[in-house]
Amino acid sequence: xxxxxxxxxxxxxxxxxxxxxxxxxxxxxxxxxxxxxxxxxxxxxxxxxxxxxxxxxxxxxxxxxxxxxxxxxxxxxxxxxxxxxxxxxxxxxxxxxxxxxxxxxxxxxxxxxxxxxx
Length: 118
Fold this sequence. Notes:
Blueprint: H1 3-15, E1 26-31, E2 36-42, E3 47-53, H2 57-60, H3 69-85, E4 92-94, H4 103-113
Parallel strand pairs: 1-4
Antiparallel strand pairs: 1-2, 2-3
Helix pairs in contact: 3-4
């Protein structure tokens, strides 16, 4: 079983317990080898309310943007900023099956700093 398969199993196990509601949407993160994605999702309506991806022009313009801790911090701040513009304060953090350290922790801490409550 590959590392990706194991991560997907962990994520499926987490998703049994986590669900985004209109009052408390889900902050889902995904890391590929090169990019980072963060989305705030209302699962009851099946809608993405806010999203940030490292392929956006705003982030691409900065030097050194790749899937690292520094970029994860930027993505976390940006998703919290965009969420606060849409009056989102409290979220449920979905780490996507990744261990809570490094990039995942940096993104979560930056989102908390930006105003999200987990």
